[in-house]
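Second opinion, please. Please look over this fold, written as tokens:

===
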Amino acid sequence: MNRADYERYAHAFNHRDYDTVFDFYAPDAKIQFFGVDLGTREAFKRFYSFLHAHVIETLTIERFAASENLVALEGIIRVEGIRDLTAEALREQGLDQFAPIRKGEVQEMRQYIHYHVANGHFTSVGCAIVPAA
């Protein structure tokens, strides 16, 4: 996995091409974000289809490092509300750990993302978010 590979991944994510994004993961990858298990294509598409019906989410890569078995990056996640995402709607999806966002509201967060890699595919991913400076 190199920077060009990851740029293709980020481009697919930013353009909501969920099948291409999911294809970057190994078949038994552990894809878990903030208590949400996205380890199947269906779960991945269901989560992001719901989220992206309410927000435009984009990743801007600021720092990138990779080896044969690791990708680590720092970037800005920008989330713009295109439709109110209420606490009730989040609760109905079992996503109480996420914050509501109103149409027109913009949130930017610095995200540190850490992927384990085997045979050119992500086998696990972890991330941490801190407020953008």
User: Anything to note?
Assistant: The chain has one domain: 3-131.
